[in-house]
């Protein structure tokens, strides 16, 4: 397999060579002296946040302003790992021995970890907490084996939304991510208070702010591993410095034979290019909340975008006296299995299970008495819950369900202070600094709006097709038009669901005709 040509860097941007006294050089020497191997790689600190071998590269670390470049490599929080020479596919480019890893079990063995276990504390993220308490306690030791690693961890994580200023958080107005940020801060605070209540030692070595810092360090850097048959999580020095890129170019694992964590190339990588890890196929809200960045063009090779937005549906109370007779039945079915009255489902531009669950809940929420009776008591299908109504129950119900969907997404769109057009223009302009919190916030809300816009178009297309009196050829042309002008998932819905309704109406019409044609 040939090695791909490198992506050229703009000539005005550069990276800083690590000085012999740099904390990063000391860190690398510590790893090498303890058996780590990365002979074909080098760590680079960038003097500008846009300096990278790929234009959409993202970093786990906070980013300096390009208007004030670092005076030394130690001042830079923007780093990347680069190939020193051409690397072939299937090349083990990083090897870090077991003794350089920090694992959950090491945290459990500390006095704080033991107190957590003895008291059987119910923590929000127990694996993370054990890693956190280890580094918070161990970094207090000036002679710690891991001191060179602690020294290169970012002292501040201002790119993480839980540390954003109120002004920066306002940039997320309208986004459900604001609640997730608040929930994350509350969960970390509850964990801290719970641990200090049974082990005051934690408060003597770490403030709540320190605890939050440790949580986000661990959250953005830990690897889930199987080490000698034990499933655990670990911090892996050096490996956690690889930035994110999709599709993945490398793979990682713990090699039980060599007792090392290894990173292997999946394709040829040209000398000078940055080596990337893939943090996985994720919605931007997860990238931003857990890593402190959002990907501007967050799409897979097949064009799929995993960006999601939560849509909330509240049980709709119908108005007619006939429907009132079914209100208790509807509430019972809607809240079956103790599910809440307001339901939330995260959807992306897809026809996956979440989208099908959304459509199912809309059908139930929009149902009248007769339709609800058909859902819960009759028909060839057994509907266990509101998420199981995967087939249309009639033209009128489907139209009301789509009208409800349009109303919900249109109301959600109103909560944002800027439009899609305004966001797109801002991202193209010079005012939003690359890799800044302002830019990442704009990328996040724009992604949400595009999903909502898709479901508004979904509802409009469905209503148009359901209301139309179309012949077979006209219907086929409509499906083709929707696929061409809207999205293939909308066209698939029109073909399958609306087409299914048409077929059922015809079948019912033929049956009624046959029953009405008998002799008396």
Automatic annotation (TrEMBL):
Domain SET intervals: 55-280
Listed SUPFAM superfamilies: RuBisCo LSMT C-terminal, substrate-binding domain (SSF81822), SET domain (SSF82199)
InterPro entries attached to this UniProt entry: Rubisco_LSMT_subst-bd, Rubisco_LSMT_subst-bd_sf, SET_dom, SET_dom_sf, SETD3_SETD6_MTase
Single Gene Ontology BP annotation: methylation
Domain of life: Eukaryota
Keyword S-adenosyl-L-methionine: yes
Any Pfam family: Rubis-subs-bind
Keywords carried by this UniProt record: Methyltransferase, S-adenosyl-L-methionine, Transferase
GO terms of molecular function: protein-lysine N-methyltransferase activity
Family matches, as PANTHER family: SET DOMAIN-CONTAINING PROTEIN (PTHR13271:SF137), UNCHARACTERIZED PUTATIVE METHYLTRANSFERASE (PTHR13271)
Protein name: SET domain-containing protein
Source organism of the structure: Triparma verrucosa
Taxonomic classification: Eukaryota, Sar, Stramenopiles, Ochrophyta, Bolidophyceae
